[in-house]
Design goal:
This protein is α+β, with helices and mostly antiparallel strands. Helix content is about 35%, strand content about 30%. The protein contains 15 helices and 23 strands. A seven-stranded antiparallel beta sheet has the order 4-3-2-1-7-6-5, with helices on one face. The protein is globular and about 90 Å long. The two termini are about 50 Å apart.
Length: about 500
């Protein structure tokens, strides 16, 4: 369909207006009853969510893309059943008409429903109605622009394709032209959206790095396939990324709920042993942890997670025939070099869905990003050792700084978390036994030697020995450029 410039320019102001978020308590009218809930419109405006402060498992939300209309007053049918109860508060009532995608009419389209609300103060009423009116208008404008289509470049390894992408009129899928098969992706299949060029397809595509500011990826399907796109027009990039964020119930919202803490059952192999814990995602999104538990032993870093397994598919679950819990709410986190498992049961299906979506997104990012090898130089290691030793209580002479094996272990794991494993703990113990003296304390040179021992890679050493050569001046095996080319 044609996209006249006049139509695009007339919508520019509404789409780019910056609006903030808002949160307050309101009364929700449902089937003749009033429920006090805390309503929140986040700054990203992707959804309106509400929850009870007294009961868990009551969090609900409506995507902003499903909003149809805002109506001021108590004229909606839902208010009729509580007419006497709200007689003095009718001036604080308003309703939101929205698409309920859990229900469908005779034509197979999403049914409409009404969210009937009563603000607690006149100030809250004014804030909510003003903000929602602007946000709904902008959302509808954004979706209208997306249905008009936008020119983009689809990036695949070693090849680029020029296509025009459209949002379907029912806002349920994305299609593109030209396409021989009428290809499309249902929005329900999209797991999450990533801005920038963070996928392998972008890294392998030719001559695209200069367009990173206009690039994004849709991760979709059970196999986490990616649709990697570069938008030609910067304004269209803003429209599509904002619109898709409102259409897709993304991982960011799930991770926000994870950071608030969730009650789960932590399951052990022993029959009859399962304990209730509060599982939480850290504010930095670097690790998950549970409480109550012994400090230092109750966290798992995202970068160490190997797999997120759905259902009862670990040895722990297979040994727990006494538990008749639904597999659809059982989840296992496989982590560490020893492939340990954290086996969890969620009593609330919504919490299970949030943790599954949030963890998969975090795991995708951790595995998809280019691995950064962090190796410290001898000078850096000597500085670490000296700073730590000066803070230690045990100092014989100012020039004779040493550390115990426990202090060395804490220092190494603090500086490089990738070293923290049961195998390396055993290697440190074996190395400590070979130290001279009775007290087995580390000097600076021994600390540096230990670090190199822990980072020694026998597989790489074997490659160097086979394809490289020994340099007597450097006292090590290395490769020339020609030898590296031969190996590759």
């Amino acid at each position: 369909p044609p996209r006249p410039a006049s139509a695009r320019s007339s919508l520019h102001t509404e789409v780019h207006e910056e609006l903030g978020g808002f949160s307050s308590f309101m009364m929700k009218v449902r089937k003749g009853k009033l429920y006090r809930r805390k309503f929140t419109l986040p700054e990203e405006h992707v959804c309106l969510r509400w929850e009870s402060m007294k009961k868990r498992g009551t969090a609900s939300k409506i995507l902003m893309s499903d909003f149809i209309e805002l109506t001021i007053g108590a004229d909606a049918p839902g208010f009729a059943s509580v007419h006497d109860k709200i007689a003095e508060r009718r001036h604080l009532c308003f309703s939101i008409t929205y698409r309920d995608r859990t229900k469908f009419d005779e034509d197979g389209l999403a049914a409409t429903d009404s969210l009937d609300l009563i603000a607690e103060t006149a100030e809250d009423f004014e804030s909510w109605t003003t903000l929602l009116s602007k946000v709904i208008t902008r959302s509808l404008t954004t979706l209208e622009r997306m249905t008009m289509g936008a020119d983009m470049t689809k990036c695949r390894p070693k090849k680029l394709y020029e296509r025009t992408y459209f949002l379907s009129q029912d806002h349920l899928s994305i299609r593109w032209e030209p396409s021989k098969t009428g290809a499309s992706i249902p929005l329900s299949a999209i797991k999450f959206i990533r801005l920038g060029q963070c996928t392998s397809a972008f890294r392998k595509a030719p001559n695209v790095k200069q367009f990173a500011a206009k690039s994004f990826s849709l991760v979709h399907g059970q196999d986490f396939e990616t649709l990697d796109l570069i938008v030609h027009d910067p304004e269209e990039f803003h429209i599509w990324t904002r619109g898709l964020a409102s259409l897709v119930s993304g991982a960011e919202d799930s991770q926000r709920i994870m950071q608030q803490g969730t009650k789960v059952f932590k399951v052990y192999t022993k029959q009859g042993k399962q304990v209730e814990r509060t599982m939480t995602l850290s504010n930095s999104k670097e690790y998950i942890f549970w409480q109550p538990s012994q400090p230092g032993k109750n966290r798992i870093y995202i970068e160490f997670i190997k797999e997120v397994r759905q259902g009862r598919n670990t040895d722990v679950w297979r040994n727990r025939d006494d538990l008749k819990w639904e597999p659809e709410q059982c989840l296992s986190v496989v982590y560490g070099n020893d492939f340990k498992t954290l086996d969890l049961y969620f009593s609330d299906a919504a919490d299970y869905g949030d943790w599954l979506t949030g963890l998969l997104a975090l795991l995708y990012d951790a595995h998809e990003q280019t691995t950064k090898v962090k190796l410290f130089s001898d000078e850096q290691l000597e500085t670490f050792f000296e700073e730590q030793a000066k803070r230690a209580k045990y100092v014989v002479r100012p020039t004779d700084l040493t550390l115990s094996s426990e202090e060395v272990m804490r220092l190494l794991f603090k500086k490089d978390r990738s070293l923290e494993s049961r195998g390396n703990i055993n290697r440190i113990k074996q190395f400590t036994k070979q130290l001279p003296g009775v007290q087995k304390r580390y000097t600076q040179d021994q600390f540096v030697e230990l670090y190199k021992t822990l980072n020694w890679r026998p597989d790489i050493q074997a490659v160097l020995a086979r394809y490289g050569h020994y340099d007597p001046e450097e006292n090590r095996t290395c490769m020339t450029v020609a030898q590296l080319r031969n190996f590759l």
